[in-house]
Amino acid sequence: MELALKQRFTRIRQEIAAYDPWELAARLTLLALLLSPVGNWFIRPFILGLSVAGLLIPGMWRSPSLWAALALLTGIRFYISWPLADNHAYLLSYWCLAFAVSAWLGNREVLFSNARYLVALTFGFAALQKWMSPDYTNGVFFLVTFFLDERFEDFVVLFSSVTFEQIDIAREYLEGDYRSTPAPDSLPFVIPGSMWWLAILSTAWNLLEQTLVAIVFLAPKNSRLGRLRDPMLLLFCFTIYAVVPVVSFGWLLLAMGIAQSDEKSATIRYWYMGAFFALIFFYEVPWAELLNTAISG
Amino acid sequence: MFASTDVGPSRLLVVTAMNENGDEYTVPLKGRLKKLKYRARGLPGRSQLEVLARATWEKLERKPVDETGSPLASLRIEVWKTRYQASSLQPQQTQIALEQFDFRQ
User: Fold this and answer.
1) Cα dist. A6→A1, A3, A11, A13, A267 in Å?
2) Is a pLDDT exceeding 60 seen at residue A255?
3) Is the interface score ipTM higher than 0.85?
4) Which residues of chain B make contact with A129, given a CB cutoff of 8 A?
5) Does A253 contact chain B (CB < 8 Å)?
6) CA-wise closest residue to A97 among A109, A84, A86, A110
7) What are the phi and psi torsion angles at B73 (to 5°)?
8) For A126, which residue in chain B has the nearest alpha carbon?
9) What is the pLDDT of residue A51?
10) What is the mean pLDDT of the segment spanning A153-172?
11) Tens of pLDDT, residues A92-103
12) Which of A85-99, A138-152, B60-74 has the lowest mean pLDDT?
């Protein structure tokens, strides 16, 4: 039994290692489109259908027409929801376009260099925006977000001494209508030190990590900094997507990571695949809620 | 990726209807109007606000909220953004758009 499992595991490792990075990135992108469907009712079925076709029909994943159609549909998606589309909606469309152009030209390097620059520019602009935003650098952004965004409620209660009741009170205060009368001077309770620390650490970690990812992806691949590309991107995905439930963005970054990674390094590829699977669990398992429930008895 | 507290949910968009008899009331925005509200709140230019105003006007003509029966005279849309003080988090709202619409023939 143990031997059979070991052999199966070795075979999976060999198959992952044997994958062409272009193919693996293409398959993961198609898989991400299936696992986290995008668009409204008249776009989504076509995107899903094309993704299924790309995965099931042999060789379809390298078709320029498939990727051009996906680029067009994902482009229509953000055009329809403009100006409200998330930034990764744009990134997905650019990424599909990079596949289309690369497949059309029959030049794998086009995809690999696009992967590198899309990651570098995404993180570069994200970091620049943070450095330039006074709300962000003084910690207010995370304090307000932790109180207002319901997705962080369990995380905040788990890692600070703030209670669910205090979050409700804070939400009522922060979201009030103060057009005619000014808001009371401060919250009805004192923000505990643990909450400040959580906000400050989150601010510093995000700022530092995103700046570093941008720098290492802009640096030449074989330079000392360039060799940190994969570890930095993987660290980002493992830490951020454990807390922020935007798994489709994470999968997109991982597909780009695989495309630009060293195709001779099987280990790096296992890590990217591992991160892809880990993100499924991060997204589906409400670990902070479960821990809160366990702690509160 | 996140960087600022000035995002859609922290903005306040209010549509006020004015009747010919001078009555004013805040219009509840539900269903399709809610979607248009989110769009106008994110990009509160004249054109986005007009799309919301026109849809609201049409809905109010079909299904008046006001019980006096007085015809609709105009709609006012205001958008406010919220900033938070660094140490106290005290919210301060600033008006970023104010438009008046009259679609009477």
Assistant:
1) 9, 5, 9, 11, 17
2) yes
3) no
4) 1, 3-4
5) no
6) A110
7) -105, -45
8) B1
9) 97
10) 94
11) 999 999 999 999
12) B60-74
User: Between B44 and A189, whose confidence is greater?
Assistant: B44
**Exposed, middle or buried, B16 (CB in 10 Å: 0-12/13-18/19+)?**
middle
For the entire predicted model, the pTM comes to 0.91
Across the interface, do B39 and A186 touch by the CB < 8 Å criterion? no
Q: Per the CB < 8 Å rule, is B84 touching A184?
A: no
For position B1, what pLDDT does the model report? 54
CA distance A9 to chain B (A): 37
Of A143, A177, A179, which is closest to B89 when you measure between CB atoms? A143
- A vs B: CB pairs below 8 A: 83
Contact call for A179 and B5, based on CB within 8 A: no
Q: A176: nearest CA in chain B?
A: B91
Local structure of residue A176 (DSSP, 8 states): -
Which tokens in the block code for residue A181? Answer: 């009368």
Nearest-by-CA chain B residue for A139: B86
For chain B, give every domain's residue range.
Answer: 8-101
As a whole number of angstroms, the distance between CA A93 and CA A70 comes to 7
Residue A292: which pLDDT band, with cuts at 50, 70 and 90?
A: very high
Rounded Cα distance between A248 and A253, Å, is: 9
The rounded distance, in Å, linking the Cα atoms of A38 and A263 is 30
CB contact under 8 A, A141 and B4: yes
Q: How many CA atoms lie within 13 A of A114 on its CB side?
A: 22
Give the pLDDT confidence of B37-53 residue by residue, as tens digits: 999 999 999 999 999 99
Q: Is A179 on the interface with B (CB under 8 A)?
A: yes
- Our CA-based measurement puts residue A228 at a distance from the nearest CA of chain B, in whole angstroms, of 22
Tell me how many degrees the CA angle B80-B86-B91 measures, rounded to the nearest 5. 30
